[in-house]
Structures are given as structure tokens and as C-alpha cells.
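Example 3.2
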Amino acid sequence: MRIFLTVFSLFGILFLLAQCSGENKPGELTSSEERKFMEKGKVIAAATFAELSGKLSAAIEEKGISGAVEYCNLAAMPLVDSLSDANNANIRRTSLRTRNPVNTPNNWERGLLADFETKMQKGEEPKPVVKLIDDQTVAFAAPIKTLPLCLKCHGGIGSDIVTSDYLTIKKLYPEDEAFGFAEGQLRGMWSITFQR
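Structure, written as C-alpha cells:
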């Protein structure tokens, strides 16, 4: 009987320690994990944006908008893939209106994009999000707003986008839906996933 009470007491103490440890339940991120993946996601998104926008600006300067569209078609995905490998993550840009169907959002991305869009329509500023996709996969998502330079490829056809440039876009991206945006609108989001 004494051994039973000792074992029972030990399990009770272990249970209480687990409850007081501050760790989240299985299937949830701890607060330290949330902070870690939020910071990591922000750093990777900023570095990827800087790399892509730098290369894109150089392509525009050298070959104009049509040349930049051709650059994006050939080099943007391999560049993002190499940054994914370097950061041990899967980096994507997605949108509710994609240019390249490869970037079509999956279910959880679509839900966050809709949430970001709703917030912007209410005049609220959407913030980056960290969420657990499954027990092993953590996702970071952050809104991408339409900047003035974006309008040359994603604005209004005939007003922001020169018709000859749009013909290049349609040739390379026949299923294009990523036009008609205005400055400051939600263009899409960064979607970066990590293994926990």
C-alpha cells in the first residue's frame, strides 16, 4: 500500500509540474516558439524581398518592364528556392489573384489572405501571423502591400501597365489575374513554413 501511495504521489507531482511549466498543450506552439518563428519569418521575408526587388529593379533599368517580366518568369522561382534552401524553410508568395498558378493559395493561406483583406477593408493594419499547421510544421504569414513600382506590372492595364508590356505578361502568364491593383492594396502575402 505504501508503494502504491508513493507512486501515486509521484505521478501527481509530475502532473502538477507539467501544468505549471508554462508549456502549451500538444498541438500548440509555446510562446517562445511563437517569438522564434515570428522573428525568423520576418527576417527571411525582408531578406527575400530585398533580394527579389534588387534584382527586379536592375532588370527594369537594363531591359524595361517587359525585360523584368521575363526575368521574373525565369529567375524569381529559382531565387526563392535557393533562399528556401539556405534558410531551411519553404518560402512562397501567394495571393487571391495570382499571376503564376503555381502560387495559388492552399486552404490555410486562402483563409489568412481573406482575413488580411477584411482587416484592410475595415481600415485596420494586418499583422504577421505565426500558426501551427500540423504537429511538425509552423507557418509564418505576412501581408504584401502594393507599392508604386508594383503598379507597372500589377496596376491597371492601359493606365499603369503599358499595353505592350501586358502583352508580354499574357504571353508568359496566360492565366494572369494579378492586375488592376491600386497602391496600398493587399497584393498578397509571404507564406514561409518551417519544420518545428
